[in-house]
From TrEMBL:
SUPFAM superfamilies: NAD(P)-linked oxidoreductase (SSF51430). Residues 17-307 form the NADP-dependent oxidoreductase domain. It holds the Pfam family Aldo_ket_red. The keyword Disulfide bond does not apply. It comes from the Bacteria. This is Aldo/keto reductase.
């Protein structure tokens, strides 16, 4: 695989990034099989691995640490912090107190002395971004982290991070990790243009829309909930399922599986550095690797645009970040007593 520049970090990464959320008890519990997947990806030219401390409740980082023995220098290794890592309310979040503990835990589990890309997993409205950037700046200066980034930040917070770095003399966020697929194109409106403006590299997650663009969830078929404790709403969205059928037909007409069309679409965008693949089995990985060289013609991209207009989400994923103002009615409604006291008209 040819490599691409990860923003302006000077780091070169493959257009496919190996995501590891499926490694461990929540996906593939066989550590040796997970190691085979990692090694096969590296042998195929994938040099970028993304994980998080919360994946598998820390088990995933341990799997990666064992698998990378003897191959660490060949890998750009990324992990994330912020998720809930225990009952203690301070074992989570983006405070300096937790970051300094979380990074040491990840280094130990990954069996490395530095992390190439350390990312804020989710926005943290209750913590000043300056607090977070200050701690991450110290980690960069210590050598434990080589670059810092974010995941799921709205465009406004990406801009705020750049402003804070300039005004306070702190390190800049160099990457962003948003969701992006044929069915989820909202980041084309603001997030990707903002990343372009500031030279921020992007590694997009769920380019297969949680399996919808792998043909795993089809109209008229019962949703495979055997592996899921709950069935996300977007997997049963009728409009999304209708579009999946049309996209499968479009891919078939173009002579390729839907997975190859979906991945090629994601990496085709000029502002996407790398698309995260999340295979659970070696067969899943082999299918995705087989389509690594696929390039979509303009005419085919035009037909995709006609089905899913640029900048739109067909079915917003349940696990995607939603700002507090959209989740909490109290932030968009005046108190009832105040409304009742307001003069009519």
């Amino acid at each position: 695989m040819r490599t691409r520049a990860l923003g302006r970090t000077g780091i070169q990464v493959s257009p496919y990034c190996l995501g590891t959320m499926m490694f461990g008890k929540l996906g593939n519990p066989d550590h040796e099989d997970c190691a085979r997947i990692i090694h096969r990806a590296l042998d195929a030219g994938v040099n970028f691995i993304d994980t998080a401390d919360v994946y598998g409740y820390s088990e995933t980082e341990e799997i990666i640490g064992k698998a990378l023995k003897g191959r660490r220098d060949d890998v750009v290794l990324a992990t994330k912090f912020n998720g809930v890592m225990g009952q203690d309310p301070n074992r989570r979040g983006s405070s300096r107190r937790w970051i300094m503990t979380a990074v040491e835990d990840s280094l130990r589990r990954l069996r490395v002395d530095h992390i190439d890309l350390y990312q804020i997993h989710h926005p943290e409205p209750g913590t000043d971004l300056e607090e977070t950037l200050s701690a991450l700046t110290d980690l960069l200066r210590s050598g434990k982290v080589r670059a810092i980034g974010s995941s799921n930040l709205p465009a406004s917070e990406i801009v705020e991070g750049q402003w804070l770095a300039e005004r306070r003399g702190l390190a800049r966020l160099r990457t962003e990790q948003p969701t992006y697929s044929v069915l989820n194109r909202a980041i084309e409106r603001e997030v990707l243009p903002v990343c372009r403006r500031y030279g921020i590299g992007t590694l997009v997650w769920s380019p297969l829309a949680s399996g919808m663009l792998a043909g795993r969830y089809r109209k008229g078929r019962p949703t495979d909930s055997r592996r899921l404790k709950w069935v996300p709403k977007y997997l049963t969205d009728e409009r999304a399922l209708d579009l999946v059928e049309r996209l499968i037909a479009l891919a078939r007409e173009a002579g390729m599986p839907i997975t190859h069309l979906a991945m090629a679409f994601a990496v085709n965008h000029p502002d996407v550095t790398s698309a995260i693949i999340g295979p659970r089995t070696l067969a899943h990985l082999e299918d995705l690797l087989a389509g690594a060289g696929v390039v979509l013609e303009d005419a085919l991209l035009d037909r995709i645009d006609a089905l899913v207009p640029p900048g739109t989400d067909v079915a917003t994923m349940d696990i995607a970040y939603r700002p507090p103002a959209l989740r909490d009615p109290a932030l968009r409604r005046r108190p009832a007593a105040e409304r009742a006291a307001a003069p009519a008209g």
